[in-house]
Amino acid sequence: MANILPLEKQTLAIHALAEGNSIRSIERMTGVHRDTIMRLGVKVGTACAEMMDSKMRDLEINDIEVDEIWGFIGKKKANLKPEDNRAELGDVWTWIAMDKKTKLIPSHVVGKRDKYHATIFMQDLASRLKNRVQISSDGLDSYVDAIERGFGSEVDYGQIVKTYSVENLSKGNAGRYSPAEVVKVEKTSVYGSPVMSTVSTSHIEKQNHTLRMHCRRLTRLTNAFSKKLDNFKAAVALNFAYYNFVKNHGSIRCTPAMAAGVANDFWKVEDLVRLV
Predict the structure, then answer these.
(1) Where are the beta strands (DSSP E) in the chain?
(2) Tens digits of residue pLDDT in 14-62
(3) Partners of 196 in the beta sheet?
(4) In the chain, at which end, N or C, are there fewer CB atoms within 10 A of the end residue's CB?
């Protein structure tokens, strides 16, 4: 495929994928068959995952927010049948860590929303850092044990729990997707000595919004969801590589990789394609 499809076409297709276009819309724009676009996206996404695994090492970042975002493969959990492979189908969660200052996403893990994957996530994050950090999360119980397993005593960890109004629940379908009002915020110091005034998940929650906007497979209420787990993992990795190394972040006026010292200059989408 790489020898047949011109680099310009490959770059255009990957750029469109990273900006949230559907595979069929890219097929219409580029004239490239959707199966070719699919295979290209998986190859580049897999190469992006390997590249980030290599480059996200010995990082000096200080204030990390973590969260998880929901998606599904093939069908939602409620629609699974007894004969379905539950390891490959149903609900899938992407665990994400983001540095508040540089906006870098040093680690992400795709899996289930359970203690096992929470632990893998925290161990992976800890392996990429060279200094003591502060971590902020929501009140998910899995984080408490996972952070201890990943960091031991070398971490400052605080939780923030937001209580939302239930007013929208009485509005029926019209209010299902309206933002709920935050009526109460509680912060708790869990490990170490976190600076409680800076314990927050606001930045990572905004990143979740950005991810849904730019990764078509996570767009709600569409048929763009992944049918295979490997394709989903590749799409998420492509998105984070594009976000970390290519896309100019407005609040820091450079890419997160540049702000964190991982890259010296802006990458081009063509650079991601050449990873294959």
Answers:
(1) 63-73, 90-99, 107-111, 133-137, 155-164, 182-191
(2) 999 999 999 999 999 999 999 999 999 999 999 999 999 999 999 999 9
(3) none
(4) N
Helices marked H in 109-228: 115-127, 142-151, 202-214
* pLDDT tens sequence across 73-107: 999 999 999 999 988 999 999 999 999 999 999 99
Phi, psi of 177 (to 5 degrees): -110, 15
pLDDT tens string 125-153: 999 999 999 999 999 999 999 999 999 99
Q: For 43, phi and psi rounded to 5 degrees? A: -65, -45
Q: Which of 209, 193, 169 is nearest to 20 (CA)?
A: 209
The fold of 7-273 is: Nucleotidyltransferase; domain 5 (3.30.420)
How far apart are alpha carbons 161 and 233 in whole angstroms?
29
Other beta carbons less than 10 A from residue 153's beta carbon = 8
